[in-house]
């Protein structure tokens, strides 16, 4: 038994045993090496390869075999002759002629673009050959000058235009400064003459007018651009596609895990958070499943498309992708239906108010109780020991995307009667008015009123098992005129109808609370009122002074005019002040 | 060694002339040229012929056509160009002269 290899030689497919292949390969390398310095190396080697292919196929036919073995290859080599035998006929005499010719010529380097080692147009490689530098340093220097100011770009383009390509072997040897009297540089005299002629014509080409060179440059530039897009560009696309595949696959995995979790394998308490709290118990499975389908399938499609880009292979067949599309559409329809159903439960609005009269006191302190309210179940769940009374759990949970909008709102108004009262208004939506009312009744909210202190809970709770239907709680605090209110800083954000943040007490820097007073025109900041009063007093004083001046210096008309203007201004300001108060 | 070298030189000069003469008889495939040369005991190995044919072609003495083959890749069939024919007739003349010269040299002018 022997391993066989399929080779393509002279455009013919041939099965060949491995040992025979090694033999043939060695022979062809020998032949190629022999002709490498020949002007028509490619053509000769191709002719020889074609002939070898023919000889091998003939032998296979003759011997009724499928696979070429070492004996066949040896026969072919015998027929074609070893390279040592080639010498005798073709080029023996000319060799010394070439040697003397070339040795007489001084070898100097010429500046050519090296197309064999090029990255863009071979400029750097050519310069490296000329200066006898390692090409990587030249490239580095070029890159640096391009990045720092971009002069390198200009120089590169110029050199691209000026430097000719090294096309022929002779030019390549000149570029690298190799001596042309290479051993095995097999040429007879007329070939040599031909090469010299070529060289002359090349030299004429180099003397072409500069615009022709520019034309060549532009052509080559676009050729390079095309190669870049189809080569490097493709690579970039593939890299992007692979990144998409990796992240898409991770995302799909997390979707599966997430869906499984929502299906109830994980933690039921997730449904107490917004927006999951919207969903009715019975529909959760359906909604989770359809939402999963709606998210999963487009990402799957993206990943499959990326696979196709990256590996040029279709990952699934048409039927399957069509089926996926249908499933996705079904998912979208289900989500749409459920969304419509849920939104219908927000159609009706109901309000519920509860009024409490408070003891009428001259001063109230409004504060927010940050400590979290725990039901007995929660206390057990969070392992809060009832004995540790001194410990308080503070609810610092800010409004995030997953927090139900359950903040209360406090509105402070003037009391028409002489009593202080708190009106709690509970609002909710529902499919019908009774269900909306029921949803409103499911709100549980409490505040503590003790002597002058009013401590509000920042949030309301929904009774166990009830769902979120845009429930809202408004606290209307009605106080009679002349009542002083101390508002703690924690409460600022819950009070909507006054600019609580603007009332800064300049004398008192502690600022953890502000003092307010209820007037006929609503609640006023006491610090602000004080400031206004001081200002008013000053203006009044100025007015008196001005009037005094006016009386004393009645002769000076210009002076009179300016004083009168100022008096009008001050009066106007005072008038506004008076109106404001 | 000296004899060998001279033999090679003689063969080499004649080989090109023979190849041109064979091709002059009509369009012919490279391996048929080889077969003829072998039967004439001129050529040792095939590998020698291809560089020669390529050079003659590049010098404008030969041209070739691709012809489909039933057993393997398409083949190059060579023909003589007008230039080739001109050169060949010169070579024919030279050969006559050489044959005459050799004959005279061997047998003497007066025989």
Please summarize what this structure is.
Chain A has about 575 residues and is α+β, with helices and mostly antiparallel strands. Chain A has helices spanning about 20-35, 40-65, 70-80, 85-90, 95-105, 125-130, 135-145, 150-160, 170-175, 190-205, 210-265, 285-310, 320-345, 375-380, 435-440, 525-550, 555-580, and strands at about 5-10, 10-15, 350-360, 365-370, 410-415, 420-430, 445, 445-450, 455, 460, 470-480, 485-490, 515-520, 520-525.
Overview of this structure, please?
The complex is a heterodimer of chains A (581) and B (111). Chain A is α+β, with helices and mostly antiparallel strands. Chain A has four domains: 4-90, no CATH class; 241-344, no CATH class; 348-520, no CATH class; 529-580. Chain A has 17 helices and 14 strands. In chain A, helix 1 (18-35) runs antiparallel to helix 2, helix 7 (135-147) crosses helix 8 (151-162) and helix 11 packs antiparallel against helix 12. Chain A is elongated, with a radius of gyration of 48 Å. Chain A starts with a strand and ends with a helix. In chain A, 18% of the residues are buried. Chain B is an alpha+beta fold. Chain B has one domain: Arc Repressor Mutant, subunit A (Orthogonal Bundle), CATH 1.10.10. Chain B has helices at 2-24, 30-39, 49-58, 82-107; strands spanning 28-29, 62-67, 75-80. In chain B, helix 1 crosses helix 4. The mean pLDDT of chain B is 83. At the A-B interface, helix 2, helix 4 and helix 10 of A face helix 1 and helix 3 of B. Chain A: It is a single-pass membrane protein. Chain A: Keywords: Cell membrane, Membrane, Transmembrane, Transmembrane helix. Chain A: Residues 109-166 form the Phage shock protein PspC N-terminal domain. Chain A: It comes from Pedobacter jejuensis.
